[in-house]
Amino acid sequence: MKILITGxxxxxxxxxxxxxxxxxxxxxxxxxxxxxxxxxxxxxxxxLADPQLWTALLDDVDAAFLFPAFxxxxxxxxxxxxxxxxxxxxxxxxxxxxxxxxxxxxVHAEVEAQVEASGIPTVRVRPTVFMANDLAWLxxxxxxxxxxxxxxxxxxxxxxxxxxxxxxxxxLTQHVDRDTYELTxxxxxxxxxxxxxxxxxxxxxxxxxxxxxxxxxxxxxxxMPGPPGEYLLRNLARSSHTPVPPTEDVHEVLGxxxxxxxxxxxxxxA
Length: 270
Ligand SMILES: NC(=O)c1ccc[n+]([C@@H]2O[C@H](COP(=O)([O-])OP(=O)(O)OC[C@H]3O[C@@H](n4cnc5c(N)ncnc54)[C@H](OP(=O)(O)O)[C@@H]3O)[C@@H](O)[C@H]2O)c1
What we know:
Elements: E1 2-5, H1 13-20, E2 25-30, E3 36-38, E4 41-45, H2 54-58, E5 63-66, H3 74-83, E6 88-91, H4 103-118, E7 122-127, H5 138-143, E8 147-149, E9 155-156, H6 161-173, E10 180-183, E11 189-190, H7 191-202, E12 209-211, H8 213-219, H9 226-241, H10 249-254, H11 261-269
Parallel strand pairs: 1-2, 1-5, 2-4, 5-6, 6-7, 7-10, 8-12
Antiparallel strand pairs: 3-4, 9-11
Bound molecules: NADP nicotinamide-adenine-dinucleotide phosphate.
């Protein structure tokens, strides 16, 4: 198959390129890539905001992965409709299920609605928080400084970016039964539990942290400014009272358990 991947240099997209390139031809795109061919992967510099590029790029592909660049997905969707794309996998977010409104929920719901209206056969993958968010703790862990945590007892089933990519790869290349998958890791862990694991794998030391809940409620999360940080903070506050339960969807698609945080942390700390 030939598969086009947008957001191919991102945390999900880079794993997706690696996983699919073992067996398929890949057109990998991003705004900052250097155009080149490496084995089965051809890299194209392409901005989703550019109306000119996408019809030609999508013309001969069997399936495509859409990174939800907010406000910039309609040219891609119009071009995919024009060329009669047969399979689209959309990176969305568990935020669309929230009862509370947020900008993150609104923008993801808008992209889902655009894709739905296009009629292109689509599978939506909706991850919960990424394990990769915890990479922001590594500089403090490595330097022995306290890791700033808001709502340290917030408990969420963070999902490995490798699993999001693996589910997307399966949805792109095989028949799957559902049009929406809610992706989580195998269990809910508090931030303190995750920090203890990541610190142990990185330096062997116990977790060292400082509670910044009050500051974060006033000034926002230091590592994640803007709407994504505001959204994460609301989620942390909520899940410090009510832990978010895991789903079985990674297992359903891949036929194996979702990657455990301890396994992810071993790779992340390397
Ligand atoms: N972090 C979480 O916990 C979480 C949870 C659920 C859902 N999500 C959603 O997942 C997405 C983030 O995924 P990620 O972490 O894999 O992303 P990422 O690491 O930030 O990578 C973004 C990718 O998209 C490309 N890109 C960005 N804007 C583009 C544009 N206008 N045109 C073309 N390419 C563009 C970037 O490459 P260039 O810069 O080279 O263009 C890069 O390849 C967001 O939509 C977020 O809401 C995140």
